[in-house]
Each structure stands twice: as structure tokens, then as C-alpha cells.
Amino acid sequence: MNDASYFIHQRTMLPKEKLKGVIRVLGIAGSIVLLISLLGLLVNKSEFFHAWLFSFLFYFGLCTGSLFWVILHYVTNAGWDTLLRRQVENVAALFPLVVLFALPILFDIFSTHYLYEWTRPEVQKLKEYLEKASYLNVPFFSLRAVLYFCFFSIVSWFFRKQSCIQDGDGNPLHSLKLKRTAYPVAVLFGFLFTFFAIDWAMSLEFRWSSTVWAFYLFTGAAGASLSLWILILLGLRKFGYLLQMNAEHYHLLGKLLFAFTALWAYLAFSQYMLIWYGNIPEETYFFIKRNYDGWFYVSLLLVVGRFALPFLFLLPQATKKNERFLAMVASWVLFMQAVELYWIVMPMEFEKNLVVGWMEISIVVGMGLVFLSGYLRNASTVCLYPIHDPRLQESIEVYN
After folding, report:
1. 3-state SS record for 298-313
2. Which pLDDT value is given to residue 10?
3. pLDDT for 355 beyond 80
4. Residue 120 pLDDT > 60, yes or no?
5. Is the pLDDT of residue 238 over 80?
6. Does the keyword Membrane apply (predicted)?
7. How crowded is the C-beta side of 94, counted as CA atoms within 13 Å?
8. Which of 219, 237, 279 has its CA nearest to residue 64?
9. What is the DSSP secondary structure assignment for residue 118, as one 8-state letter?
10. Is pLDDT at 239 greater than 60 in this prediction?
11. Cα–Cα dist 222/28, whole Å
């Protein structure tokens, strides 16, 4: 019996029956925390909606980044990550759940107008808005939102569904079908994510613009989802699953995390340097708001914590192959992604000082519990790895 055949007969699934109670408790607990968070509407509606948008962007980014890694696997015809791929498929499949998190934001866009200044009737009379009104208007924004959510939800479902069907029939044509589908999907993915980043994040300050904004936001989401992927894999291995995942897999995941850390820094610096050097008032005020008062320390933390520390710690080969160290760096990058999104969204509410109130914490925790419940439900209903993928043996024996 070869290595792959032996591995197939090992623990391939989570104990679904045992996890039912955990999944239910996590889902109920998260829902209760989110319901309690709604009390924030009685305290400060503007803070509530900004905190909700911050949390939504964080979890939406995790799903988007996970879908990117699935698509990249097929576009590049990768083999090394076959053993690991199912876990990003499970996270990406949470898009329909995360879309539900967007409902309060859409409610604000149509009625209360706390988040996006351009939705307010008095602002829609200004010349600066009228120049962009053909794009930034509520009906067109809503139509685009439906397009984004449908595309990401359907694509993530399709890729996971085909992969899971292959677990049953072992037909390699499923892999070939997904590979052929991945090329046009990758183009549409980049196109739609670009406009999503403009609509849901950059238009918070509709007078401001950046030509690398979407790529910058995507790089952060890809790095954060990669970190989540690493943590899930290491967690499963700790509990006795995916035992043939080894230091070579850690090394490759670590190199990817290192690469996206450097790419994030390059884009962040390019955006800042060009805008600051250009010294155009319509552009520089985004950074002025975040470079003074309490937000200056967050900007400094991003330079050190989002780039310098992960870059230096992941530079040696030995640290990328160390299971415990890789988990620590991945946890830190995931945390810094939340800090970065907070830095993007919350200065619109707290212009002078950094504030982290109970609403911001309760909403992100509540969504996190529901998100974790959804992931465990997905992971417990399918095999933990594609047991009949034609490149499974290559992944098990990977060496770099």
C-alpha cells in the first residue's frame, strides 16, 4: 500500500455528531452577542454602523482571500497545496453567511445615512458629488452589491461542490473542469473586487481616490486569509488530522506569507509616497486625518507591526518551518489586518482620537463566533482534504 492509499484510510473527517453541539452553541452565542450589539443604536448610531462596517470588511476579506487561494491553485496548476486546499474552500463557502452581515449597512445606505456621506440628500447637491453621481448613487450601488455578492457566493460554492463530488466518484475530469473555469473566473474576480473596494471602503470619503486602493486592500485580505488558513491547518494537525502535513508545507505557506507581507508594504508605501509627494489637497487629507492625534500611533503600528516584524521573523528559513513560530506570526498578521481595517474605517467616526468601545468589540466577536460556527459546519460535512484528487500524492511528497 503506497503512502497516499495509507493516508486515505486515516482520519478524513471531523466527528460531525460530536461537533453538532459546539456548532449550535457558537452560532447561538454569536447571534446573542450581535443582538446585544444592536443596543448600540440607542447609544450612538453613527459609531454602531461604522463598527459594523469594520467587522463586515474584516470577515468579507477573509472569504475573498480564501477564494483567491482556491482560484490560484487551479490557475497555476499547483500540486503542493492539494492536501491543504479543502480548508480554504470551506472558508470561502461562508460567503452567503457573511453577506447577511451586510444587511445593516444596506439599511443605513437606504435610510439613516451615517456611513457614506454621498448618500445624504444635502451632500447630493454639492458640485463634488454631482461629478461622481452617475456612479455613486444608491440604486447603482445596490445593483453592484448584488452582483458582487452573487458572484463570490456562486463561485465559491461551485469550486467547493465540484471538489467534494470528486471525493465520491474520483473522476479527475472535475479537476480539469475547475482548472478551465478558473481562468475566466480569476479575471472577473479581480474586476469585481476592484469595484467592491471602491464602493464599500474608498467611498467612505468620496472626494478621495487612490489608483492602487483595490490592490492594496486585496493584498491585506489575501495575507489575512492565508494566516487564517495556516492557523486552521495547524489546529487540525494538533488534534490529530492532516498528519502528513510536514515542514515542507509549513515552509511553502511561510514563504507565501512572507511574500504577501512584502507586497503589502510595497503597495502601502507606494500609495502613501505618491499621494504625499503630489500634495493635492483632495488626496492628502486621507493621510493627514490618520497621521495626527491618536491615529498617528496606529499608523506607526502598521509600519512596524504589519510589515517590519513579520518580515524580519519570516526571513530565516528555520522560522518558516517551525510550527509554533509560524502560528504566532500568522496570528499576529491576522490581528494586524483587523487593526488596518479599523484604521481605514473608524477615523470617519473618531476624527481626533483612537477609541475602541464596547460596540466595536462586541460586533467583531459576535460575527467571529457565527463565522466559526459556519466554518465548523462546513468542515464537518466533507472530507478534510480532497481524497481522490489526482495530485494528492504529489502534495504529500512535496519537497522544496
Report:
1. HHHHHHHHHHHHHHHH
2. 54
3. yes
4. yes
5. yes
6. yes
7. 30
8. 219
9. G
10. yes
11. 29
Spatial CA neighbour of 246 closest among 319, 322, 328, 316: 322
User: CA–CA separation, 47 vs 348, rounded Å?
Assistant: 9
Indicate if the pLDDT at residue 165 is higher than 50. Answer: yes
Residue-averaged pLDDT of the chain: 93
Rounded to whole angstroms, the Cα distance separating 376 from 378 reads 5
Residue type, 304: V
At position 331, the amino acid (one-letter code) is S
For 315-385, where are the alpha helices, taking DSSP H only? 317-320, 323-345, 358-380
Which residues, including other chains, have CB under 8 Å from residue 336's CB and lie 6 or more apart?
Answer: 301, 302, 305, 306, 310
Start-end of H helices in the chain: 3-8, 16-37, 40-43, 45-75, 85-92, 95-101, 103-107, 127-130, 138-169, 173-200, 213-238, 247-278, 281-290, 295-301, 309-314, 317-320, 323-345, 358-380, 392-396
| Digit-coded pLDDT (tens) for 192-221 | 999 999 999 999 999 998 999 999 999 999
Distance between CA atoms of residues 400 and 249, nearest Å: 9
Alpha-carbon distance of 215 to 197, in angstroms, equals 9
Residue carrying the nine cell digits 447637491: 125
